[in-house]
Write a structure and sequence with these properties.
The complex is a heterodimer of chains A (about 375) and B (about 170). Chain A is an alpha/beta fold. In chain A, the strands form four sheets. In chain A, strands 3, 4, 5, 8, 9, 16 and 17 form a seven-stranded mixed beta sheet that branches. The two termini of chain A are about 20 Å apart. Chain B has about 170 residues and is mainly alpha-helical. Chain B contains five helices and no strands. Chain B is elongated and about 95 Å long. Classes of the chains: A alpha/beta (about 375), B mainly alpha (about 170).
């Protein structure tokens, strides 16, 4: 079968790989019908996530048709077209039982700080990802959910990560009616967080980025006030000035390790890998939020250290809330929102490419070429 | 205590005899709401009925912060070669140690060289420009491609020129 093959930083290709097998009685094998390139895949693509091995297949955003099930799978049947959440969760551990599906204790032997994630390095369990024709899906009774008949596959594939992560970013922000919400990053997650902030009663939503076409998109899609931080001398002062000196009620970091905007952070975090990515957005979030405010983090950082103004967190009494989205917990509510036209996921998709063109897809997404916001990969045997 | 792993969940003391125990407890003081459907089940330790164990194959690296291999795992690319040896060394240290993460990053870089050698051993010359997505870069950002080629050519040209000058100096001395 065809599958993406990581060969080193910024080098990927399509190769033939062996078909995945049932290795556990609760496994399923899924034929991928859509997969995406996620912003967090760029951390892997750039070689910034430790224990990313040559030969791995990335891809944690995918949907597909169940081709085979293990002996203990009873919630799915062959032929079901399913949304597969990006987190692998057993459903039985103390954390899954409390709906912390991104923090399962039975899915990743190689690290305790991160749960199991499809196609996200051996630090996240060493699972094969969905940028392939077929994938092994562990704990198939727990994570996968049958796609409703009315839902288009292009909407469904964004329910695996983008929509839940954007929603949980807003949810963790504890937004109260009338709050001013500042979002750093106008990538797919930032765009979705801007949309979802309104669902919690935000009074004002402001988005910062430096990519003009993405700012244009979120201005209309959010809707949101948008600012290019390249044209602002000091982002924090700007936020203070536009909130009568008090700061935003809530700040959300939707960027993570690939942040631009601060030369020192870029050099130490992205170029020299002296810290776990560039923490520019988080730095701005902590300094822009009001005293007693909330900072919500869904941007992905590496497992080592980052330079952030933790003293200001203490002195301002900031609450920081962060996690990988618990996709399974959120899916029923979010599917209703899509059904009711409140969230329109597929509008984020700008490019649809054959899986075979994955190297060009990564380049396009990484360099933000051709006004790319979200790239969907379609395997040759997708069939839908 | 599990004598094989060293992990334990000792019985808690008679804290209820501590004067004032729990008088200010407030279940609403919970910043995890609504993300966590709080049961505090983890206070009982690692006691839940575990899913069946995926057969354990050799080569899985396990965090020393865990007592066991998780019920399922990926390990789609088992560690091997020099990079594998470095990875095995890294897993002697915890996730809070640089001695865990920095060797892993180093192993990743060594692995890239191993990958090229593996390709060559199979008679495949990696098409690095294609792997880097040159087609879309050329289509949408010709300037970047031309700049990269020009900088690369200038660097190679400079190195060649320096080597030739050194050779010439050697000849002159003779």
């Amino acid at each position: 079968m065809l599958a993406m093959n990581y060969r080193g930083p910024q080098r990927v290709r399509i190769d033939n790989k062996p078909m995945p097998e049932i290795l556990h009685p609760q496994d399923a094998i899924v034929r991928v019908t859509r997969s995406c390139i996620c912003g967090s895949d760029l951390h892997l693509y750039n070689g910034n996530v430790p224990d990313t091995r040559v030969g791995e297949t990335f891809g944690h955003e995918f949907i597909g048709i169940v081709e085979e099930i293990g002996a203990d799978v009873h919630n799915l049947k062959v032929g079901d077209h399913v949304i597969v959440p990006f987190n692998i969760a057993c459903g039985e551990c103390a954390f899954c039982q409390q709906e912390l599906y991104g923090n399962c204790h039975e899915a990743n032997p190689e690290a305790t700080a991160v749960g199991g994630i499809f196609g996200y390095s051996h630090t996240a369990g060493g699972y094969m990802g969905g940028q392939a024709e077929y994938v092994r899906v562990p704990y198939a009774n727990v994570g996968p959910m049958v796609i409703p008949d009315w839902m288009h596959p292009d909407d469904a594939v964004l329910m695996t990560d983008v929509v839940p992560t954007g929603y949980q970013a807003a949810e963790m922000a504890g937004i109260q009616p009338g709050d001013t919400v500042v979002i750093f990053g106008a990538g797919p997650i930032g765009i979705m967080a801007a949309r979802c902030a309104w669902l919690f009663g935000a009074g004002r939503v402001i988005v910062f980025d430096h990519v003009e076409y993405r700012l244009d998109f979120v201005r209309k899609y959010g809707p949101a006030e948008v600012y290019n931080f390249r044209s602002i001398r000091d982002v924090v002062v700007f936020v203070k000035k536009t909130t009568d000196s008090l700061g935003a009620d809530v700040c959300i970091d939707c960027v993570g390790a690939e942040a631009a905007g601060n030369l020192m952070q870029t050099i130490t975090g992205r170029k020299l890998l002296l810290q776990a990515g560039s923490a520019t957005a988080l730095h701005w979030a902590i300094n822009s939020v009001k005293k007693g405010g909330i900072v919500s983090i869904v941007g992905v950082y590496g497992p080592t250290d980052n330079l952030v103004p933790i003293g200001n967190v203490v002195n301002k009494g900031i609450t920081i809330r962060a996690n990988q989205a618990a996709v399974k917990r959120l899916l029923p509510k979010l599917i209703e929102h899509v059904k009711n036209g409140i969230i329109r996921p597929s509008e984020l998709i700008t490019h649809r490419l054959p899986l075979e063109e994955i190297a060009d897809g990564y380049r396009m997404f990484a360099d933000k070429l051709d006004n790319c916001i979200k790239t969907v990969l379609i395997p040759p045997r997708a069939g839908v | 205590m599990n004598v094989h792993t060293g992990f334990s969940n000792p019985e808690k003391g008679n804290y209820q005899s501590v004067k004032g125990w729990g008088i200010d407890a407030d279940p609403e003081n919970d910043p995890t709401y609504p993300i966590k459907d709080r049961t505090d089940a983890e206070q009982n330790g690692y006691t839940w009925p575990r899913p069946p164990q995926q057969p354990i194959r050799p080569g899985i690296l396990v965090s020393i912060e865990r007592p066991n291999v998780t019920a399922v795992y990926g390990n789609t690319v088992p560690p091997r070669g020099l990079s594998g040896a470095i990875r095995r060394f890294a897993f002697k240290f915890s996730e809070s140690s640089y001695l865990h993460w920095l060797p892993l990053l180093m192993a990743d870089r060594v692995n890239v060289v191993e990958g090229v050698l593996q390709d060559l051993a199979k008679g495949k010359v990696p098409n690095i420009p294609a792997e880097r997505g040159i087609k879309s870069e050329w289509k949408y950002n010709k300037k970047a491609v031309i700049t990269k080629v020009a900088v690369g050519a200038a660097l190679i040209g400079g190195i060649v020129a320096m080597c030739m000058m050194k050779q010439e100096k050697k000849h002159c001395r003779r």
